[in-house]
Amino acid sequence: MTDRIEAAAAELRPLLQNFILWARENAPGSDSGLVGSVALWHRLIASDDVGRWKRSDLRTVLLDRMPQVVEDPDAAADGLVPAVRAYLTFLADSGHLTRGSSSLEDLLTELDALEDDFVDAMEELVVEEDEEEDYDEEEAEGLGDFEPFADELAELPTIRLRPDSELAAATRATVLIAKARDLAVWVGTERRVGETSLLSDDEITEALGVLGFPVPQTGGATLADSVPALWNVWNLAIDLDFLQPEGEDTVSVDPDTAEWPFEEDDDALDAWMAGLHSIDYGDPELDDEEATIALSGLTRALLIRVLLATGSKPLAELRAELAEAAAEYDDLGAEAWATAGERYGDPLNPVLDWLTGYGMVEVEHDQVRLTPLGMEGVVHLADEADIELDARPAIDAMTALDLLSFGAELPEEEADAEFAAWMELRAPEQAARDLLEAAAEDDADALIRVQAASMVGSLGEVAAPAWREALDEPSLRPYAATHLAQLGVEDAPPPTQADTHWLILDMLTISAGLGRPEFVSSLDDIGNVPNLVNLLDVIWKVPHPHLEELLEAIGKAHPDKQVGKAAKRALFKARSGQN
Description:
The chain is mainly α. It has helices spanning about 1-25, 35-45, 55-70, 75-95, 105-140, 150-155, 165-170, 175-185, 200-210, 230-240, 265-275, 290-295, 300-310, 315-330, 335-345, 350-355, 370-385, 400-405, 410-425, 430-440, 445-455, 465-470, 475-485, 495-510, 515-525, 530-540, 545-555, 560-579; strands spanning about 160, 190, 245, 250-255, 310-315, 360-365, 365-370, 390-395. Residues about 135-140 have low confidence and may be disordered.
């Protein structure tokens, strides 16, 4: 999932940078910074094309997803809908609203219709946050809170995550999801549920058999109260959407449930991630409710400590630290810990049973180790808690696009080290091809292109075959021609004026995304006013994906009126040439 979010964010970055430039002039009252989350989740859950927007997508993103992910509901209530209105207008005006989209008029009409419901949803979140803040002020930190460990977590060495294909394979082997599937399939269609217990005693006995759980001795309690493990799997099935309510008194299996384990990696990972919060079902359950509450968060507390130990920690150390933490966080903690020990043999047994069943930890020779799937899950939980972690794909699993995307955001020395480690596992000539192919995937992403050219350029003569092949790719030809000339390769076409102009436009695209001062500074680097005017008189002919946006930006940002007029003339010629 992390890979998908990073890839989608990288795909959207150039488009959002151009929107910000556009909005300054065309929608100055809108908060363009609010659009990023909407565009990202539209790409992740509604459309594989960032430029294809349908009326139904607006409801899916704004009403179904945004209330779950928005960071500042107060700001969203005030400005998100106007910002989305500006963004959709920008997509239409700039030609980025692709075939298959609803018309701009229909999209804006639907947006108007949803606005009141969206604002209501945000205001409800504001009230909930206020209530939570009041509660947090009254309550001590919980046993499973990440926040007290924020500084230690931030100092951890780089966490390496495995690729989605490997993680998906691991999800398919998780015992608990298989049990949730079996239980949901047994439930079937429109099974009636009761008021005091979801199932009758006979049904509970049958369900336990399906799951391979023994029928317990009740000791005077009801059978329903004696099978917490069954209800944990039941709740997991609901979390996974394997079970769905069909009204107030019936529940049914989802039609796709029997297909688990899902073949598509994305589907398998999405299902596993949907059930991630089931880790809380691993907390010990005791007869006394207050004692149970005293140990709530124990599963998360164990995960935090294993993560802080860089993924592996002796069970005895965990047991001692968590016993001390339980006593510290709650007055009943020590007593609850002792009671859990009597009930389970070890208070950590239910915790480890659930985590191993969900594929997150392995226990061997009294050592608790996070699995790759567990590391992915803990990183996701930390991200939900707004904890900064340095998490990246493992070097051996890092694609060329991963390397370029991360390298563009890292300090130079760190990016160089990442590149060097990546190169150690690859033949230089093939690595050059992979990097240039990744850079060619999106001709609008100038930053990735420049990053690739820099990395491939550092390989020297061994990259010449890859540069020759890149001559056929319009967005890379300027870099290929330049580097081949620098290498003195015979029969290579020399860089043309158009190649030089493309390189200039790439540089301006990057600086435009950094802000107005950086953009104006990069224009000054090109030369004095006469040189810049002369450049604008010819550069409009270059078929660069950001040409029009940059000409608009130059006309608005440059302080010299002569340059502004030249930029407007160039923009007119560029648009006339396209028509």
